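Q: How would the structure tokens look for this protein?
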Amino acid sequence: MVQKVVTVVRKNWQPILIGIAVIYFWSFIKGLFSFSSEKGIDIKMPESGSRITASQAKRYSDRLYIAMKDIGTDEEEIYSVLFGLTDSDFASIFNSFGLKRYFEGGGVSSEGFVGVDRDLLYWLRSELSKSDLDKITMNSSITAFI
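A: Here is the predicted structure in token form.
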């Protein structure tokens, strides 16, 4: 099976490369001309009553970003971060996460110039299924946000 894939890629590398370039170019152009309503809004949630420190919130937001940034989402890592949190704890993590580039075409982060700035809620709603989100809300008290 793998040998067949390698053979197909070797024979068709130019059209594959052109296709990838077109997708990235389209995403770049779309990002340049996107309307302001499509871009993330850098809002801050109230954190009063949070049980976690700013450095913990930063570590948690980094763990969530790493779990979602590449192809394939690490749901178990997301669960381990979010389970048992309160609304205030989540607000601290949300604020620490800020806005990060999200490439709509592939569902992965775009640390370069393509993609749109999105907040943590957008990332979670895009990367997780409804049943995954339900699992998180049943095991924490962050239902007000997710």
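Residues 34-38 have pLDDT under 50 and may be disordered.

The chain has two domains: 1-33, 45-146.

Upvote if useful.
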